[in-house]
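User: Please predict structures.

Assistant: First:
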Amino acid sequence: MGMRKRVACCCCWFLLGTLLTGPLFSAEETETAKPIAADSMISLPSESPLTVQQLAKIAEEAVVEITVTGRRGDRVGLGTGFVIEPDGLIATNLHVIAEARPITVKTSQGDSYPADVVHASDRKLDLALIKIKAENLPALPLGDSDSVENGQPVIALGNPYGLNNSVVSGVISGTREIDGRNMLQLAIPIETGNSGGPLLDMRGRVLGLLTMKAQYTANLGFAMPVNALKKLIETPNPVPIARWLTIGALDPQEWTPHLGATWRQRSGRMTVEGTGSGFGGRSFVLSTVEVPKLPYEVAVTLRLDDESGAAGLVFHSDGNDRHYGFYPSGARMRLTRFDGPDVLSWTILKHQYTPNYRAGDWNNIKVRIEEKRILCYVNDELVFESEDRGMTSGQVGLAKFRDTEAVFKNFQVAKSIPKTSIDPAVASRIEGVVGEIATTGPPSKPLVETLLPDSPASLTVLRSRAAKLEKQAAQLRKLADEIHQNATVAELVKTLTADEEQIDLLQAALLVAKLDNDELDPALYQKEINRMARGIQQELPDDASENDKLAALNSAMFADLGYHGSRTNYYHKSNSYLNEVIDDREGLPISLSVLYMELARRVGLNVVGVGLPGHFIVRHEPQEGDSQLIDPFDGGKFLSRESAAMMLQANRGIPLTDEHLKTATKRDIVIRMLSNLLGLAQEEQDPEGMLRYVTAIVEVDNQAAQSRWIRAVLRFQTERRAAAAEDADWLLEHRPEGINLQRVEELRGILDRPR
């Protein structure tokens, strides 16, 4: 049996390799990188290694202190950076400058400057470049992190805990992949405030940026290699500080904050951090939505960073100090009436532990407000009932207390809000299908004593049972993945079956990303794009022309928000996931084009997709006048037909034809996005991923014969023999052109053999 299975796998890889030589889909080409400027650096006394003392004295002139302030002007962050260009270009970590915060740079000479521009940032690499208005600053030369050796001596400079110009020495222990990032492992202690500081070789050249420390030992840290920084220098995506400060800011049409703290929203989620100015660190934000007449319900799903904190719902608020609050506090649920600004005017109506609250996890809390009572729910279970009538009307919203950091999603106000939990009958039916798997705590003493006399047999039986359960758990995870993927593909097909004008391209593109992320909620990103479009419209006069709207769209998307084509890590899957493109403001030509088209539609512009081979672009088709080709990957650059022809010649070596400039249908766009992911999965030798994407392609276009053949081979390779036979039979029945039917018959013959 084992030999037959092994032979089958080898045969499958032969079929797969024969069929899939080269990329399945030619992804877009990047531009040639520009050289990095290397002049005006700190002058080193010689090419010979220096002592730690000599290096520290020279390099500290280029090291800066970076502080980030909150909305009330208090310091909320401290880190390090270093000058890489004398005109004020400074490198640091993205987490040092946070987001949407004022940034101040203090040089070694004691001069302070506000950051003028966030010159470039990369969330995945945790890197940032900021620009200050300064001249003739000492700058550090950049080395080559690809040439580092294990055991190589290095020094690091920074401002740990605000202790400026601190120096530590150590060695490079090796290179490690952490969270998909290649990093330098260091035998060096890294503390708070060191982040963003330079790691230098003994000739004073930067090899990396200090990024993180190990939690389990003091003298182990990590640095981002400087060669990753070089790529960011070559492809900046500048965001003016005025715009940077508004990223993630609350939409005033939806929310009104009170009593300080930092409330931000992004992609449908709201976060809060910092201490509110109210007593006990209270801060709250009120929704502008019109509250329904009684009875009504208000709900939110939230997660706390620390269960000793407190955050949750507000209702019956007068817009000042009076309101009710229902929230977890110290891992217990609490219902409080706030009648004033201090603790003496607060009345805790209910406060107790409930097993329905899942500490450290997402929890849905809901309040139903009726004429004579208040009902409080946690994860759909009633935990409190109160007849308190201290307040009977007012606004609803969210609140936090103390130093709590919290994340909220799915805030709702309605006459009735559906339950979030699974119906017990449905859950029972599912459990019956997949079988009973016991999940208990530590083994009881009586159970141990019962099994102890037969310890050898007990060990064998228990370990056999554990191995079986582990395999069953793996199968359950596969089953869950398969159900999620099938449900998502079905939703995608349903979205694309509408007439072309009615197809929601944004929803379809988000569903493509959801194939790989079952937690993705497209509705949150729909809301975010609507919010972005409203921001563009608010800047336009009532009589704005189409050219005015196009200019406003380009300015908002590229100059203000900093969306840009990904050149540093072009083939990363994140550039194809539209939700991550929206979050990170970086993507492929096609993903940026989809975003551009959807924003354009919302501000009243007709922009369509143009699927040039190797580089997707868009075309603005005005009601009057000539159409205009636009390249969202290149900052919304206008293209002539001649420049598009030159691009195609450079990327594919073929002449431009009218066929290349045809409008891409929304279904074409989705299939091309899936094909991009299919090609990446092929490069990664990920057959499950390939099967996921090619299945979506076949279901969207059931006449895609080549894709169906690819799926047949992949199904065979992943032990889905019956499904592979279905695809092979379809091909033999329909006999589509371009398919080697002899190869299909060979596969069908293999599938018919007994195993």
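Second:
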Amino acid sequence: MLKKLLIANRGEIAVRVIKTAKSLGYRTVAVYSEADAKALHVEMADEAVCIGPAQVSASYLKADAIIEAAVRTGADCVHPGYGFLSENSGFSKACKDAGLVFVGPPEAAIELMGSKRRSKIAMQEAGVPVVPGFEGDNASDEELIDAAKNIGYPLMIKASAGGGGRGMRLVEKENELADNIQRARSEAKQAFGDGELILEKAVIEPRHIEIQVFADQHGNAVYLGERDCSVQRRHQKVVEEAPSPFVTPALRQAMGEAAVKAALACGYEGAGTVEFLVDKDRNFYFLEMNTRLQVEHPVTELITGQDLVAWQLSVAEGLPLPLAQDQIHLNGHAIEVRLYAEDPANGFTPQTGPLHQFRPAEGEGLRFDTGVRSGDAVTPHYDPMLAKVIAWGANRNEARRRLLRALEDTTVFGVTTNRYFLSRIIADDVFGAGEATTAFLQQAFRDDPSLAPKEISLRELALAACVFSHGNSGPDAARHDINRSWSNAPSTVTPMKLEVGEKTLALLVRRVGNHFTVTRGEEQYELNLESLGDGLLCIIDKGVRQQCQYHCRGDHLYLQASGQAVALRDVTHQPASGAAASGSGRIKATMDGAIIDVLVEVGQTVKRGDTLVILEAMKMEHPVKADRDGTVGEVLAAQGDQVKRSQLLVEITTAEANSDSNTEEAGQ
């Protein structure tokens, strides 16, 4: 009998595993980096062991430190979660060598399916349909370029050891191939330590549909329906749902049986996901097998009524599968979105900083899987996902409706998130019709307002003016009934300056009792303030009583109205500052990260849009580009440097600036 489980992970998946393990009577052990010392998963576990500094290579990827923590605490089994070491065959073997039960498949299955090249060959031999391509053993750039001539375009370059869209490139023309091979290989080495690549014929506008499989140690294997993960950005999943609106019962059975065949072919045990591409004619092709629990497993749990972590632990103990194939039934519909600290209007750059307030919405059919809470900080060291927001409904529209409300009612103050972007997807007509393919975000959704910088409305400025004018802005301020303090004093007009991003907006605020008139230029907005406090602002706007959430910290205000959040600062009483520098030519880091390449040197001529520096953050490469033509005057970063968001990296001077400088020198 297994008694104590160590979770070799962090964040929401560690929290989720701990919950099920505790419910089954297991004692739990958390591991954590120095940056995670006060994290939620550490607090929830019975015991916790620090395994190193913040860098994942020195902590969560340090297998010997994790195994030593298990031995020291007397744990007898290890759950790897997802990511980090979850698909590392060496870690699986090391656990078993140390006398620990690894809650996952045998190392041979992990190793086979961890190679896109070898797994594809194995699937062909097992009779599972695969995408035509080239799977040469450690193929050179030249071999890949030569093979591409037979495959034809468009084609996909894929990292053999990869996942999550890293090391993956779509190539549409022959003259784009060589550069994309180099980029994909570099990214694959950075992310996985392995630069092996394969090529595949690109299936245009497919569905990305995956099958959840489970196998035990007695030769039994089943599938638990499918998940549609077609809505993706840069090959990373954004929305996942079950069942797929595109899959017919006959296709579900065919794909399910193929997935079980794939699992049995590699001697699989435990939870696994077989991913397929499905074309418009419902032909399906093996993509890869993930030898772990998936991020999106909650949607399968909600439509099957099963706890997949409990199944994993049961299989690890050597028990047969809880259900046979004919006992597995699907009920209703579930949709999951990934709530990230990122800015969709600024190229989805990851956001870091304090999470002043995080309050998940409550309601029927809702589930939040999260590893953060109010007061935590989002750091640059790890994936910036705040939570998985999942809604279940008796049908797809009910699930969509509940998810939309959950996104709108969840309070997140302190960092920019992708919440508005997610809600726009769920409400979109193409998605609503079940017609979204992997090309959806790049085509039908590419001009959506959530992808452009938001212009603050006069209504939002009026709401902010109500809070700032009343002076009841402390985070713990009690709820205050405005009507009780109404006065018949004459109206007052107060100038107010609010800072939004880099803009400072001048307002005139007239207040008569609880009635506010806010003027900006020629525009006016009027509303009645009913009450505010406890983070809730109540107003009457054009005869309609409404509420919105807010949070104040000093002169900073976070306001959430109609599911959209804005951040403002009251600078009315700030001293006037000199003219702000234009910033043109001052190229700054777009996020916290590491410099992995500097492509320019002092004196080099550059054009607007040229890539100057490659920044790595959240395991992805981000090019930092010139914002104007000119000459590189100074390079302030070097390969290997750790930099902060907005840190100056490169300065570009123009011919005019150089001319002015030379004139000054000549006159001295």
